[in-house]
Amino acid sequence: MSAVHHITAGFLPLLDSAILVAARERGFAAEEGIELALMRETSWANIRDRVAVGHFDVAHMLAPMPVAANLGLTPVRLSLVAPMSLGLGGNAVTVGNALWAAMAEAGARGIDDPASAGAALRDVVAQRAGRGEERLCFGVVHPHSGHNFELRYWLAACGIVPERDVDITVVPPPLMADALAAGRIDGFCVGEPWNSVAVAGGHGRIVTVKAAIWKNSPEKVLGVRLDWAETHEDRLAALIRALHRAGQWCALPENREDLAGLLAGEAYLNKPSGLLLRALEGRIETGGGIAEIADFFLPAGKAATFPWQSHALWFYSQMVRWGQVPHGADNAEKARTSYRPDIYRRALAPLGVAMPSASMKVEGALSVPTPVGATAGKLVLGPDGFFDGAVFDPATLDAYIGAQAEAVAQEG
């Protein structure tokens, strides 16, 4: 099919841009009549702003960013929708060598045990405070990012008060490993490959991963301006079909080496393909050996690309928790409707894809692979537990937010 639609998409050099890259380079976009141009950016603020002013039609975007935009948390007026997720997982938490040595002495173990790593970090934080030393500083990629919220969630659940006990600052993903090497930060939470880059450079140790903090949790979405989505319904549907097929291709083990080679290209991640391949396989070099991580990054399967509105509401609950926005029924509704499973279902219906019948689920309720109701065929979701055993039921959002507020008050 000859190209009939031109779409420009912004992206950051991260492993979870894989679906967009594969859609362009392996012909899935062209099969849907789309000429897909990919424009690499250096920061999430640039992605947001270039979508806002019309440089990009769509973008590889932080999963909470559409929610934040619709809540008025962006510098310019911007209404966004997330009609598709770009996969699950893919992040990790890395600390510098000196901090790791202190954490190991305090009892930190493997990267699949965030509780022990967090308890060790809590002890180190307390020791430093007792000696009158400055607070540890951690990098995250944006205030409205899964990285910021999962780091804070992990710290708080382990007895570290983020606003009191540590500093959290924003560093663009491609600069994170260099910031650690230069001693500007003590640790960070970022997507791959930037954790592995820090380890390969001898500057850090991966202490835990997103897949251990919250299994099969959301990370990036396809971000689209609302007016563009409404004006170009057919074009967006074709892109979603192309990305769906690309995600399926990315998930096949026999394609991982090819995918790693694509992503390693100068126009994309520009990093060694071997380093990228390990992350695609879920084999993470921590700095202390290879760790096998189940479901480290899922580009397809287990409804990995479905835009769950319960994910949007969990991000909203964290924005409220950390004082970014006040809670109210109107704000909660703006957050929920930032994710658009209706657009996703309409786009993929012609393919007969098994999609969830529901648009929300109880997050943290599944401990084993579980069949769920689907629009067609069979659909099995993966475990989605939080490491501390907590459960988020979007039907009881007020109570969840109230409990968070009570915990914050007790910390104060």
From TrEMBL:
Q: What is the lineage of its organism?
A: Bacteria, Pseudomonadati, Pseudomonadota, Alphaproteobacteria, Hyphomicrobiales
Q: What is this protein called?
A: Nitrate transport protein NrtA
Q: Where in the cell is it found?
A: Endomembrane system
Superkingdom classification of source? Bacteria
- Record key words, sorted: Cell inner membrane, Cell membrane, Membrane, Transport
Q: Which InterPro entries match?
A: NrtA/CpmA_ABC-bd_dom
As recorded in Swiss-Prot or TrEMBL, the protein's gene is named nrtA_2
